[in-house]
Amino acid sequence: MRWGLAKGKANLRAKEDPNNNPNATADDVEKANHAGRIIQNDIENLPIGLVVIWASFTTIGTSLTLLENAEGVCITHLAFTSMFCIFRVLHTIIYELHLGIPRSIVFILSMCCLFGLMILMLVAAFSLPETPGYLR
C-alpha cells in the first residue's frame, strides 16, 4: 500500500489514474523507487522461504513416527520458521530505514534459518526406512 501511495505522489502511476501528482519532485520519485525495491526484495525472498518451510514440514511430518526425538524436531522447526519470519520483518523495517550493514546481517540470519530447516529436513528424510526392493 505504501508503494502505491508513493507512486501516486511521485507521478509514477498510469497516466489515466486520478491519484497522480503533477507536481512530483525528484525526492518523491526516489522514495517511490525505494519502496519498490523493498517490495521487490520481499517478492524475491519470500517464495523460496515458503518452499523450504513447507518442504521441511512435510518431510518431518512423514517421518514423525520414526524420529527418536520427534518433539524436539517439531520445536526446532517451529523455532527456525518463527525466526525466519521475524528476521524478514526486521529486514523490511531496516531496509526502510536505509541501514545497509544491519540489513545484511539480518538477511544472513534469515538465510541461516532456512539452511537450518534444510538440515532438519535432511535429518528427517534420512530417518525414513529404506524402500523395499519390490516397490522400487
Tell the overall outline. elongated
Structural class: mainly alpha
Compressed to H and E, one letter per element, the order equals: HHHH
Number of helices: 4
Uncertain regions: pLDDT < 50 for 5+ in a row? none
Distance between the termini: 51 Å
Main β sheet profile: none
- Radius of gyration, whole Å: 22 Å
* Mean of residue pLDDT values: 81
User: How many β-strand runs?
Assistant: 0
In short:
This protein is mainly alpha-helical. The protein has helices at 2-9, 26-62, 70-96, 100-126.
Structure characterization notes:
The protein has 136 residues and is mainly alpha-helical. 73% of the residues lie in helices and 0% in strands. It has four helices and no strands. It is elongated, with a radius of gyration of 22 Å.
Keywords:
single chain; 136 residues; mainly alpha; 4 helices; 73% helix; 0% strand; elongated
Outline the fold blueprint.
Elements: H1 2-9, H2 26-62, H3 70-96, H4 100-126
Helix pairs in contact: 1-2, 2-3, 2-4, 3-4
